[in-house]
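User: Could you go from structure to sequence for me? I need the amino acid at each position, not a summary. Structure tokens:
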């Protein structure tokens, strides 16, 4: 995971459609990059996505995602001051290697 911001946010939902909808709200609301989205594969129907940015922007993205996902929200976390070790572990973890990069102009 490349170092764009000082934080990442992870949003987990109960359904694929709610994750896609919540990720859409997150990236349209805040100045964050969508680093990864994992949809149901090996997750029992659940899905999650990861955003990267400054802690303020990550918080705004998570807030938007929570509002959009509403009753389908499973869990959220914002991790400020991500360590180099954790960033490297996420980048090399098998499930994080298949990530989707956004191409949305800011």
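Assistant: Here is the amino acid at each position, in order:
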């Amino acid at each position: 995971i490349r170092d764009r911001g000082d934080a990442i946010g992870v949003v987990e939902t109960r359904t694929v459609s709610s994750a896609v909808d919540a990720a859409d709200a997150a990236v349209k609301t805040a100045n964050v990059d969508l680093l990864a989205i994992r949809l149901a594969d090996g997750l029992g129907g659940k899905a999650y996505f990861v955003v990267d940015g400054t802690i303020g922007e990550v918080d705004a993205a998570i807030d938007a995602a929570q509002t959009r996902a509403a009753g389908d929200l499973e869990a959220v976390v914002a991790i400020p001051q991500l360590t180099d070790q954790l960033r490297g572990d996420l980048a090399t973890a098998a499930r994080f290697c298949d990530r989707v990069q956004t191409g949305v102009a800011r």
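One structural detail worth keeping in mind: The radius of gyration is 13 Å.
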